[in-house]
Amino acid sequence: MAKEKSYRPNVAAIILSSKYPFATEIFVANRIDIKEDAWQFPQGGIDGAESPRDALFRELREEIGTDEVDIIAEHPEWISYDFLNRHARKMYPFDGQKQKYFLVKLKPGAKIDLKTKEPEFMEYKFLSYDEVLETISTIKKPIYKKVLSYFKKEGYL
Predict the structure, then answer these.
(1) Which end of the chain has fewer CB atoms at under 10 Å, N or C?
(2) What is each CA distance from 87 to 29, 34, 38, in whole angstroms?
(3) pLDDT at 119
């Protein structure tokens, strides 16, 4: 009998610039620990009894230096994916992650600072909906397409 897979609870943020809803600019950042371009949305694990929303704000502070955002919407489902073999050992005992996605907007005047205590990203940019899907080349591309399509269908993007 196959072992049941174990997924690490995680949150992810689709961050819109403070120009939203007049302009739809979506934040992506390039990981510092991967040699090839690895553009993604900020994300991170949920600690202990922490709620997904609390984890979202903590992860944003840790990864982009600010939690000055307003939550616009939340994806209704948890979305799971398996780690690539090269990441599996580092993330043991988990086989992958199950993620709760939030659509958030930067508050006017919020300052992004990637030089956090433990930097995860080397650079960031804001892209259009289509540019995000063109830029993402990792295993997360189908997930991003699903989540972005949902928010677009709901009228947010």
Answers:
(1) N
(2) 19, 11, 14
(3) 96
